[in-house]
Design brief:
The complex is a heterodimer.
Chain A: H1 6-26, H2 30-55, H3 59-89
Helix pairs in contact in A: 1-2, 2-3
Chain B: H1 3-22, H2 26-46, H3 50-75, H4 87-111, H5 129-136, H6 141-162
Helix pairs in contact in B: 1-2, 2-3
The chains are: A mainly alpha, B mainly alpha.
Chain lengths: 102, 167
């Protein structure tokens, strides 16, 4: 077994996705939760690229291109929301962001 | 890629990803995420995805992470207080995480070494800018145009959101 098969990459992607999901569930700082979401997106990107190579299809890499674009848009809008929330209530703790309860 | 190289790379990746989640200060989380993104770019290079690796560094490690660091420093965030969390929620998080991890390991053990290793693709042009662009501007043209509209909406939304006179 001198070569790395595609399953290794898929497992690595699953591991990274799990770490990202745990970050969203366990941390309360919204910025760290946001970074964990980026981590999950990147784990999916790794799977896309590995399968693109495995199947000899370039479509997987095109999908990564779109994921990156959506991640950039999401980061811009999300961070703007965080800044607006911090300006009004001086907090980045997700537990304290319960203003929709009225 | 040689299995030893892959092992070192994935160990570093998992360690830096854990650093993102476990670091107390948001700055350290962000810097760990930069390391993770760079290591992923290296992995992409090993997978013959040259353009994607370059984009990963320019867009992710460059633009997006600068945005994150800028916001963290703008808000002047200090270290988080120790996490106080409902016991059931913590238990649920660990249970879900272990379940997913278990599924991943089971998948790995079930099929490791079974498939052939990733061989180099037949054509040398695989993963080059030209190959991706040819696909992007033909089959995925509609999605590409929609992406442009999405970015425009995101720009307008971010500007409106960051304006001072928002409730």
């Amino acid at each position: 077994m001198n070569v790395v098969s595609v399953e290794w990459y898929l497992t690595l992607g699953a591991l990274l996705f799990t770490i990202g999901a745990l970050g969203v569930l366990l941390r309360r700082n919204v910025i760290v939760m946001f970074m964990s979401i980026e981590l999950m997106l990147n784990a999916v990107n790794l799977v896309f690229v590995a399968l693109s190579r495995h199947l000899h299809s370039i479509d997987g890499q095109v999908a990564v291109f779109f994921v990156m674009t959506v991640a950039a848009a999401e980061a811009a809008v999300g961070l703007a929301i965080i800044i607006a929330a911090f300006r009004n209530r001086e907090t980045v703790n997700a537990d304290e962001m319960n203003w929709l309860q009225g | 890629m040689h299995p030893v190289v892959f092992g070192i790379l994935s160990a570093l990746l998992v360690l830096s990803a854990l650093g993102v989640v476990l670091a107390r200060s948001p700055i350290r989380s962000a810097l760990s995420l930069v390391v993770t993104l760079f290591l992923l770019a290296v992995t992409f290079l090993f997978l013959d995805a040259h353009l994607v690796a370059a984009l990963q560094i320019i867009v992710y490690a460059g633009a997006i992470m600068v945005l994150f660091l800028f916001v963290i420093m703008l808000l002047n965030l200090q270290e988080d207080p120790p996490v106080v969390m409902h016991a059931a929620l913590r238990w649920l998080a660990f249970a879900g995480g272990s379940l997913f991890l278990f599924a991943g390991i089971a998948m790995f053990l079930g099929s490791a070494g079974a498939g052939p290793g990733l061989q180099s693709p037949a054509d040398a042009a695989f993963g080059t800018t030209e190959a991706i662009a040819a696909r992007l501007f033909t089959k995925h043209l509609l999605a590409f145009e929609a992406t442009g509209i999405l970015l425009l909406i995101a720009v307008v939304g971010a500007v409106v959101m960051a304006k001072r006179k928002l409730v």
